[in-house]
């Protein structure tokens, strides 16, 4: 099923007049009637134009592709076994799921420590990231996982001080870094700052390393949701003008007197701020990595999106040459705070296909004895079974799973529950668990014991994220125990089987009916 069949979706707040009766090729209503007010995407585009390109409403939602791709992780099953134990003694009293070790180590020196192999991908200058940052930062720090500050934070901060084209102060970036570092425990987890073209020009990463103590920086080629630069909507004229003067692409032009009058008269209500696309070249990429290391960055990473296979090959090879600490590869359909809706659905290499190519490219370098960076996979992960399959699909190179929408959803739910508790207006769905934090959040008592007097400072948004991660961790331990793998490094491609010939062909994972064939022959004779 392709998205081009749809001419209406909740993402753009549109619908067909004829409901489920629509033409498969175009997505239009079977009967398009003269006199319709224009509720579908075509109709809404007739009066709101380019505004309908983007999912709505901006600032309080996240979005991801609605397209049903030919292959996804559900086309694989996890293989369990009744024999042995890897990574622990073969003893039924010791080989129990609570003893599965989920700690991960990333980087050239394996110095980045994670309690659970989860990274939150770049959450940057969109409103939904900014207003939920407290829960994301504190929750990630408590869990001992990585949190990535996305692009354009310094440039979008109207309180930033920029001298000679370089940022020297950004209260918003300082807030984001400090919230994480204040709650970080025992050196587990890390705060990472991502940079695009505008961030690099502002020297935002140098500022973060030199002034804020950030140790990990991430170069960004792109993401799975789009193949252009990041964008946000601006409803404040003065802010739009500041961003225009800082060099951003702002549409319509907020310095044009005609456009200013139109905005003030309500002809349009928001500006769009766009980022530039980068121009990747091996020499400049390696030079930038070396420059960041000289600045003091302890680890340098790269995130790339769902570009064509040759660009993935460039990402792998250039990362090898520059000895990048970990490479994040984000498949098509990924989540976003704002991306063109049709682009999110109709461009790029889907996740399973992209990750399968990635594994092949990493294997080729490894076979030649070349450096292969640690790999992190991104592209719609939400639950522990998907995490297991991702780790197995790209084993032995994949060391962590990258998420964004799911952790943000957990933090937002936690925040909403906290507000309901404070207002003493809990819905029945929650009242059955109790009326306070300790009775509703299953990890709250644990956090209360661990943090004592500081427990009251932990927002419910952070407790929500921490509790979600606790579920993922226990679920992943159970799956790994069933496969008799008691540490992450032991997960292999042999731990999953393909359910369809197409999934097997693309991934190189044997069909479930073919797996173990040689061993079966050995046993049966």
From TrEMBL:
CDD domains: GltS_FMN. InterPro entries: Aldolase_TIM, Glu_synthdom. Residues 281-397 form the Glutamate synthase domain. It comes from the Bacteria. GO terms for molecular function: glutamate synthase activity. SUPFAM superfamilies: FMN-linked oxidoreductases. One of its GO terms (biological process) is glutamate biosynthetic process. Belongs to the glutamate synthase family. This is FMN-binding glutamate synthase family protein. It comes from Candidatus Abyssobacteria bacterium SURF_17.
């Amino acid at each position: 099923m392709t998205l081009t069949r749809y001419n209406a979706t909740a993402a753009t707040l549109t619908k067909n007049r004829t409901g489920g009766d629509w033409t498969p090729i175009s997505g239009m209503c079977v009967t398009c009637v003269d006199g319709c007010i224009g509720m579908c995407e075509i109709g809404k585009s007739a009066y709101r134009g380019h505004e309908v390109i983007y999912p709505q409403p901006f600032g309080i939602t996240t979005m991801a592709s609605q397209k049903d791709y030919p292959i996804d992780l559900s086309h694989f099953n996890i293989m369990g076994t009744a024999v042995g134990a890897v990574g622990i003694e073969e003893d039924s009293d010791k080989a129990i799921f609570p003893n599965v070790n989920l700690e991960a180590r990333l980087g050239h020196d394996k110095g980045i420590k994670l309690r659970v192999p989860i990274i939150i991908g770049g959450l940057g200058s969109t409103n939904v990231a900014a207003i939920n940052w407290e829960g994301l930062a504190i929750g990630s720090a408590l869990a001992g996982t990585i949190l990535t500050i996305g692009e354009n934070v310094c440039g979008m901060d109207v309180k930033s001080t920029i001298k000679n084209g370089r940022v020297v102060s950004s209260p918003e970036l300082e807030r984001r870094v400090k919230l994480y570092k204040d709650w970080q425990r025992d050196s587990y987890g890390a705060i990472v700052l991502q940079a695009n073209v505008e961030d690099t020009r502002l020297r935002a990463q140098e500022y973060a390393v030199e002034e804020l103590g950030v140790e990990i920086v991430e170069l960004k080629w792109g993401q799975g949701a789009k193949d252009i630069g990041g964008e946000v909507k601006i409803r404040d004229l003065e802010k739009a003008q500041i961003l225009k003067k800082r060099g951003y692409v702002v549409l319509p032009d907020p310095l044009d007197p005609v456009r200013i009058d139109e905005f003030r008269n309500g002809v349009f209500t928001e500006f769009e701020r766009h980022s530039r696309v980068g121009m990747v070249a091996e020499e400049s990429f390696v030079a930038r990595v070396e420059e960041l290391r000289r600045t003091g960055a302890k680890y340098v990473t790269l995130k790339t999106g769902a570009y064509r296979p040759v660009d993935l090959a460039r990402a792998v090879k250039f990362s090898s040459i520059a000895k990048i600490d970990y490479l994040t590869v984000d498949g098509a359909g990924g989540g976003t705070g704002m991306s063109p809706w049709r682009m999110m659905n109709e461009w790029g290499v889907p996740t399973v296909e992209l990750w399968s190519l990635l594994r092949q490219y990493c294997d080729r370098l490894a076979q030649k004895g070349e450096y292969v960076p640690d790999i992190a996979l991104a592209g719609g992960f939400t639950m522990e079974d998907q995490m297991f399959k991702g780790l197995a699909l790209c084993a032995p190179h994949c060391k962590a799973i990258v998420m964004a929408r799911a952790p943000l959803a957990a933090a937002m739910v936690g925040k909403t529950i906290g507000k309901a508790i404070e207002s003493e207006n809990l819905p029945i769905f929650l009242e059955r668990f109790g009326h306070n934090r300790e009775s509703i959040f299953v990890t709250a008592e644990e956090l209360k014991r661990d943090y004592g007097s500081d427990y009251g400072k932990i927002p419910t948004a952070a407790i929500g994220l921490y509790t979600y991660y606790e579920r993922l961790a226990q679920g992943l331990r159970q799956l790994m125990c069933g496969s008799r793998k008691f540490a992450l490094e032991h997960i292999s491609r042999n731990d999953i089987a393909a359910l369809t010939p197409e999934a097997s062909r693309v991934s190189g994972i044997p069909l479930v009916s073919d797996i173990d064939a040689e061993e079966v022959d050995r046993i049966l004779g």
